[in-house]
Design brief:
The chain has one helix and two strands, in the order αββ. With 110 residues, it is mainly α. The longest helix has 55 residues.
Length: 110
């Protein structure tokens, strides 16, 4: 009896099974990497939720009464307010002339 054709068929099946196993291991490695990334992102979201809810618990019930800034529109006479032009958080810098229709804006922190 000649066993060679049977052994050749077994070799082909073994090779195919090994190739499939290697491909599945590669997919598992990729999925484990993606799972670690998603777990880390989820952990960050949980921490963010804890921080936000912790801050919300400490927030005062009403808005605090803040002193009026002398340049705020509410404290200026109506004749000095130009609608659409007031930007309380910026001032136009006069140190350098404007170039080609642009203006420099300097932000002030309070």
């Amino acid at each position: 009896m000649n066993l060679q054709p049977l052994l050749d068929a077994l070799d082909l099946q073994e090779d195919a099974a090994r190739t499939l196993a290697d491909e599945l291991r590669a997919q598992i490695d990729e999925l484990q990497t993606r799972l670690r990334e998603v777990d880390a992102h989820l952990e960050h979201l949980v921490i963010t939720r804890e921080i936000v809810t912790g801050l919300a618990d400490r927030e005062p019930v009403g808005a605090p009464d803040l002193p009026k800034h002398p340049d705020s529109p509410a404290s200026l006479p109506p004749s000095t307010i130009r609608p659409g032009r007031y930007e309380p958080w910026t001032r136009v810098a006069a140190a350098e002339p404007a170039r080609s229709g642009t203006r420099q804006v300097v932000s002030f922190s309070h």
